[in-house]
TrEMBL record:
Annotated InterPro entries: ASHA1/2-like_C (IPR013538), START-like_dom_sf (IPR023393)
Family from the record: Belongs to the AHA1 family.
Record-given protein name: Uncharacterized conserved protein YndB, AHSA1/START domain
Limits of the Activator of Hsp90 ATPase homologue 1/2-like C-terminal domain: 15-150
CDD domains per record: SRPBCC_CalC_Aha1-like_5
Length: 153
């Protein structure tokens, strides 16, 4: 796991087949189950935005909004979003987005999942460090969440 000021990189070895991990990432409803967002009835489609209400306690008043960049089945899913957009009084739409990339690699013992979020150097200076800190810790927790999710079936 490496970090710089512009990007967060995390990875985890999941003891599950690549097809199982891909389903947990690419199916919007299943993704929401472990990520903590209600994407009921939504799909991830390249070039389209998808929104859902956060279900994580204390953040239920927030809406997660991502624009899917690219989908390569069982290998790559990427989207853009506004990191750490947690203040409902702020219009984040005027800010640049970061790019989140999920990459899957099949290995002997399961699937290596790599998550890279980049573009923090473009975030306004007043909130850049906090967004980086929040998302760095957030991705650590989300990797634990997906590990539990794929292990459960």
């Amino acid at each position: 796991m490496t970090t710089s000021t512009d990007r967060i990189e995390k990875q985890i070895l999941l003891k599950a087949p690549r097809s199982r991990v891909w389903g947990a990432l690419s199916n919007a409803e299943e993704f929401g189950a472990w990520f903590g967002v209600n994407f009921s009835g939504k799909q991830f489609v390249a070039g389209q935005s998808v929104q859902g209400n956060i279900t994580y306690p204390g953040y239920e008043h927030l809406v997660m909004d991502v624009t899917v960049e690219r989908i390569e089945p069982e290998h790559h899913l990427s989207w853009r979003w506004h990191p750490a957009a947690v203040d409902v009084s702020v219009d984040y739409s005027v800010e640049p987005t970061t790019l989140v990339v999920f990459e899957l690699t099949e290995v002997d013992s399961g699937t290596l999942l790599r998550v890279v979020e980049s573009g923090f150097d473009q975030i306004p200076a007043a909130r850049r460090d906090e967004a980086f800190r929040m998302n760095s810790g957030g991705w650590e927790q989300q990797l634990v969440n997906i590990e539990k999710h794929v292990a459960a079936g």
